[in-house]
Amino acid sequence: MRRETDRLVRSWLNQNAWVIRRRDDVRLIGMAALTPVSAATAQYQPGLVDGIEFVIALGEPDWGWGAAIEAGQAVMTYGFDGMNLSRIVAVADLPNTRSHLLLKRLDFEPRQESDGPKYRMRGYEALRRSGT
Ligand SMILES: CC(C)(COP(=O)(O)OP(=O)(O)OC[C@H]1O[C@@H](n2cnc3c(N)ncnc32)[C@H](O)[C@@H]1OP(=O)(O)O)[C@@H](O)C(=O)NCCC(=O)NCCS
What we know:
By secondary structure, this protein is α+β, with helices and mostly antiparallel strands. The protein is 30% helix and 32% strand.
């Protein structure tokens, strides 16, 4: 994400979300957020209660070239260093292969698996590294 997008990003902070766009194009291609784990998620993943959850979604035309990993790394750095979080959690439905690959690239560790509203789901946890 470019510095020039900061104003736009800040305008989204009240909604707890960042917008994602290409460097060379103003169109939005996705969003990312750090948000309290919802009651609905906690119902299936009690280990994540009271956690701050990383969520991200890109429009399908922009899958596969690394936008999510770049945006995700920026969000995780902000969470640990800017918000001083010690732990960030995430969930993904088991069939969402791309989500699991992304979360592993962002250094999330798999935790509990559980039934979800539609599919089995896996909870993840990323901990702030000591000394950072
Ligand atoms: C999850 C989601 C954001 C992942 O998007 P993505 O584009 O697959 O993720 P990445 O940015 O990590 O990109 C991975 C691909 O880019 C490639 N890539 C990574 N860095 C790259 C770079 N610098 N240059 C070129 N390619 C790169 C990887 O090799 C990989 O390629 P592949 O698809 O051929 O295996 C997307 O699938 C999505 O929006 N899904 C729906 C919502 C969802 O499930 N969200 C998850 C909830 S946490």
